[in-house]
Design brief:
The protein is α+β, with helices and mostly antiparallel strands and 295 residues long. 24% of the residues lie in helices and 31% in strands. It has seven helices and 16 strands. The strands form four sheets. A five-stranded mixed beta sheet has the order 3-4-2-5-6, sandwiched between helices. Strands 13-12-11-14-15 form a five-stranded antiparallel beta sheet. It has a four-stranded antiparallel beta sheet with strand order 7-10-8-9, with helices on one face. Strand 14 (246-254) and strand 15 (257-264) form a beta hairpin. The longest helix is centred in the C-terminal third of the chain and has 16 residues, at 274-289.
Amino acid sequence: RQSKVARSGKGHSRKLVVSELARQSVGLFIILTRGREPGRTGPPSAWYEVGRNNALAEELMRRGHRVAMWWDEPGGECVTATADLAILRSGGPVNIERGLTLQATGVAVVNDPMSHWRASDKWELAQFFDKASLSHPITHIARGTFDREMVLKKRRSSGGHGVSLLPPNTAIDDEDAIVQEKVAVEDDLRALVMDGEIVHWLRRFPRPGEWRSNLAQGSTFEEARAVGTEPTTLALAAANACGLDLCGVDLVRSADRWFVLEANPGTTLYGATIEEGARNIHRIADALERRLVTS
């Protein structure tokens, strides 16, 4: 049987068609990703082979689906020009362009490529949050001087790379960066969001001597339980404001108030333990399958 993606409405709020037939149909998925290191060699795409260490592809294959991997380098022709669903895991220019091309041919892409691209820009994120009236640290383009210590971030950066502290009264003029109010952090959470639901919560702890809590900067983390209504509502509102189906939302509490820092469209999917990570992947695969309808 041939599968297709059913869509109703636009963006994050579109209604998902849920059917038992979705579990029985064989879908063709494309995962748009990047190599582990820059300068990747080899084919630009390939059919996924079990044991190649992509947890989401493994789970989809285990369920009987076909999965094609598209890497952002090197360039070249990809193994398939169509699919039932494409998953945008890396939002560099090559993958965004490919996602737009797939979308133009009627393939649904998670996340919407333009939403993914805009949400990868920290200045754009701040505009989304402001428009939705979400609690968010005061943010400016990095131009001028500021009378207090600020957090300096490259607009397109991740993992805490390109993030530093800007001393008070330091002149700066960099339109490719933002400066952000530094808040005193009392609690630090990441919500993994898929299709308007919280899949998993992590609580993050910076390593000694480090103020950044990014996992790439050596922070430790644990599953967060009984998180409460306020951060849950804020995380879901942040994902919705950015038009993201799949993302990680970073939240901090300061002076008994919750703030959203970022919504990360290329978020990691793992948990604090192997078992938690497996549950996350299982729930995301469930959500992807719900988008499949047998014609």
